[in-house]
Design goal:
The protein is mainly alpha-helical and 181 residues long. The protein contains 9 helices and 3 strands, in the order ααααααβββααα. The chain is 49% helix and 4% strand. The radius of gyration is 19 Å and the shape is globular.
Length: 181
């Protein structure tokens, strides 16, 4: 519902002293996201494309947007619920994530079954166990266009840009004079 205001949000985060912003599109996991928040009309998708292009231009001009260009380019595909193009694959979430749920279940991705439970097994046994091996095979083969910012894969160049953006933001904050009064 707020995607048309994203460029203003980039400006606002800088005025309040934040060092960067990372956008994450909604997914269809609740009735609200399915019925109220999903972007699907041709007009809304066209507006989303214009907003995305504006964000890409802002990022190119130095705005502290952490999303990679590849991820920003995929927004329309995401809302059209298309499969992930080859440039977005393979998913590596199964090889790097270890989410412990409140009940002790361990997941690498919430779309897949848990790989174990920390109340019943050690972290090492869970990570190297058969269920974890199976989940890694499943996630690497996944062709969903997942844009969750915590899960999306980033190239080394993306990570370097993110680091430089964060450092630049911290240095800007440090160089601003403090006014006491």
């Amino acid at each position: 519902m707020n995607f048309r205001y994203l460029p203003e949000l980039v400006d606002w985060i800088q005025t309040i002293g934040a060092t960067a912003i990372n956008f994450q599109p909604v997914d269809r996991w609740t009735p609200e996201t399915r019925d109220e928040l999903w972007i699907e009309t041709p007009e809304d998708l066209a507006d989303l494309g214009r907003i995305r292009d504006q964000l890409l231009a802002m990022k190119s001009a130095g705005a502290p947007i952490l999303n990679s260009e590849l991820i920003l380019q995929a927004w329309e595909l995401h809302f059209r619920e298309q499969k992930a193009p080859e440039a977005y694959r393979p998913c590596r979430v199964g090889m790097r994530n270890y989410f412990i749920r409140p009940d002790g279940d361990v997941e690498v991705c919430w779309y897949y079954k848990p790989i174990g439970n920390v109340k019943k097994s050690s972290a090492r046994d869970i990570w190297y166990g058969e269920e974890a091996r199976l989940r890694r095979k499943e996630t690497v083969a996944c062709d969903s266009l997942c844009l969750f910012t915590c899960l999306s894969q980033k190239t080394f160049a993306d990570k370097a840009k993110m680091g430089l953006t964060l450092i630049a933001g911290v240095n800007q904050k440090r160089s601003k004079p403090t006014i006491h009064g």
